[in-house]
Please model this.
Amino acid sequence: MRNLGRCLLGVLAVALRQPDSTQVQPFRRALTCVRSLLDLTMMAQNRSHTPETISYMEEYGTQFHETKDIFLEFHISKRTQEKADALRKVLGRQRAQMRERVPSSQRRRIHDDDREEENDQRMELIHSESNFSLVKMHLISHFRDHIYMFGNLPMYSTEYGDLAHKEQIKDGWRRSNKIDAARQILSSYGRQHAIRMRTLNLEFLQRAGADLPTEVVEHLEKTRPALTPPAHQRILKGRRDNMHDVIDFGPVCEISPETICRK
Model:
């Protein structure tokens, strides 16, 4: 997710680069919201903070909360969506009856006005019945106090637990026969952990100049991890070798890097 954040703002700026007259303010508000959130997440990854950096984080968080409602229409419940659909149908029937008494030369203008009014009423309904009352959204307001009390935020990141869950639980589950899987998972991880500790001890003895059997030395050479990272096995569709970020992608869309940075 951190790697995605490096290019998310540029991609969004490219996608919203040509708004019409009715989209200028919403697009600008969306870019401000995303920029504030990304600045906040990047600043929160610092291993040390000063009062100035913490004040920056508070400013980014406040700006994010002030502009996040631009995405509220994409976070509505099924019940609210049903109410919005019913409202649109009622308004459609009422306006259809009214258009019958209007000259054809004025119907186009009235139709545009009706659509704008319908959209306003829909957004009013969404804002009255939907919100971003999520725990993760609320935690942003506690970053400042958390840093003063406990230190930097990366120390309490959950990604290490997620990675351990994959290696210790999921891989063991796949290797088990799904019968009494918990016992097999613990046994499998225990054996791997014991073998790894034994290997580390032998490598330490080898570096210390201990006289190890030839077969042990050969085994250590075979199992020693490679210095270069393995190549990516999964290649996304449409990926090009000469494109690594949004700056490389800009020329394809005939957009200069200056335009991306300015947006």
Observations:
- DSSP finds twelve helices and no strands in the chain.
